[in-house]
Amino acid sequence: MAPSQPIAPTKNSKLLAWVKEIETLCQPDQICWIDGSEAEKRRLEKRGIARGQMIPLDPEKLPGCFYSRSNRSDVARTENLTFICTRKKEDAGPTNNWMDPREAYAKSEEVLKGAMKGHTMYIVPFSMGPVGSPFSKIGVEITDSIYVVLNMRIMARIGRKVLDLLGDDGDFTKCLHSKAECDISHRMILHFPEDNAIVSTGSAYGGNALLGKKCLALRIGSWHARQENWLAEHMLILGIEKDGQTRYVTAAFPSACGKTNLAMLIPPEGLKHKGYKIWTVGDDIAWLRVGADGRLWAVNPEAGFFGVAPGTNSRTNPNAIKTIQKNTIFTNVLLGDDLTVWWEDGEGAPPASGTTWDGKPWKPGFSDENGKPLLGAHPNSRFTAPAGQCPTISPKWEDPQGVPISAIIFGGRRERVAPLVFETFDWDHGVYVGATVASERTAAAEGKVGEVRRDPMAMLPFCGYNMADYFAHWLQMGARIPKPPKIFHVNWFRKDEKGKFLWPGYGENLRVLEWILSRCEGDGKAAKTPIGFVPTKDALDTTGLSLPAGAMEKLLEVRAEDWASELDGHKAFFEKFGPRLSQRMWKQYEALKDRLKTAVAA
Ligand code: O2Y
Ligand code: MN
Which of 65, 150, 165, 568 has its CA 20 to 30 A from that of 124? Predict the structure, then answer.
């Protein structure tokens, strides 16, 4: 059947030519240009329901919310099938999977030939960042998935207003997505930074399919950022208000280290008397540029949260629970027979009965074939919710100029080596600390529990080019920022010898942020150690916090012997990059080694 061709709502010749090319390749039954209107949203929801792809939830308890279940082999980003397709392999670097662009285009074309027969091809113009902001970038996602369109509607600004801004000759990132039966043998997430293009096939889930997020805002974004002298980072953005003044920080942690929880932090009881207010600007991605005032400014390029559901409850993240009460899409959680949703370590009592993420009947207490509790929700199940619904959303979250950043915070999950917090000596040292971020694997992650995974700036799976060049880019950015933010490292996960967490985390983390901000103001007590400035044991305000005796000392301790073996890990990681790694990074390594040697000798 010849596709029913609506009149294209644009004269942009690059876009029209590309749409024609993809139509010829994928052979959809219909083409639908997404305008972003409410009426269109309702039409799409109806269509999704009719096709069994979306289930409307209880309109009283969860108004405007939908449930969706993905293919059981399609439940997370697939890093092993994610490729950077630069003409030269070295430009992708040793930490990325690489594919020759010619091979990548040929392979994906094989899968895409006729892939949309019987389906509608949706054309979704979107802006990452507020429409028209100097920070923002335009993309157009062509997809055959209603689920993707409805999720993109929450996660980005989409539709007519973006096409208008694109105009007749504006440029955009080509983002082509096809479910291709969600077949893992068809799955490839391909990035062509030299062509400003992304092709994703064989998955309809999260980071693999919502192409504005990890693919554009981080992998392609980081490539643009290097060329245009800005930073595209895997960072939350948070505002901390006190005495009428709000200061902003960004923080980069590897996946599953609680970025969404920190971004929505609630001040602890013990600090209530100080009148702090926390403002959420973003929970996952930050785009940073040097402002006319010489400071670094940040924008959250996203418009929603794609948060992990299990573990989200009123104790861990009350603001997230409030955010997801309406207009939210729940993916792969437990679906109650009463049309509510639930997940492990979640909120309230589970429903009396329901269906698991993978379609099995479920009741509280049911066991799986190994006698273990039958999981209602997949561990990577998600909610997609509009950022504007968050009770702590910052009044500046859509400011086209962004917010000024006082501090950049890196962190990882380390049981022993890293203290609760330390301040780096200067920009280059901060870049070194970011470049050597590592996390120990948890039971939920792939691989051996406890194994240390280096995750520089939490960007390992998301940097769109050779990470040696990425570190060099960070280093050279230092010279471009007349008033650079200070750089810190935190570790909420230090344990005692019995394996118990030493720090309570969650809202109490504000005590650490308070110290960080005081250091940015030139205050805050600290001791100089080989790894940086560490708070003295009375430097954090612990009013109302009852830590066991000696816990603060253990949290802040820097053991030179532990760092000596850590240093071997830094070296082994840096050696992967060969001569492409900046000598300035090696200089930092040598300086740390010397400082540690002196400390051990003393
Ligand atoms: O598994 C996925 O597709 C989602 S992964 C994700 C989602 C939201 C924010 N961050 C992440 C991540 O892996 O860092
Ligand atoms: Mn993330």
Answer: 65
Distance 311 CA to ligand 1 centre (A): 15
In whole angstroms, give the CA distance from residue 266 to residue 510: 8
Residues 360 and 304: their CA atoms lie apart, in Å, by 30
In the chain the domains, ranked by start, together with CATH numbers, are 13-53+77-228 (3.40.449.10), 233-303+395-601 (3.90.228.20), 305-389 (2.170.8.10)
What's the gap between Cα 406 and its chain centre? Answer: 21
- How far does the centroid of ligand 1 lie from the alpha carbon of residue 473, in Å? 25
Q: How far is CA 287 from its chain centroid?
A: 12
Residue ranges with CB less than 5 Å from ion ligand 2: 284
Q: Over 240-278, what HEC string results?
A: EEECCEEEEEEEECCCCCCHHHHHCCCCCHHHHHHCCEE
Beta strand pairing status for 245-252 and 236-242?
antiparallel
Active-site residue 26, yes or no? Answer: no
- pTM (predicted TM-score): 0.97
Name the catalytic one among 85, 257, 390, 520. Answer: 257
The tens digit of pLDDT for each residue in 205-256 reads: 999 999 999 999 999 999 999 999 999 999 999 999 999 999 999 999 998 8
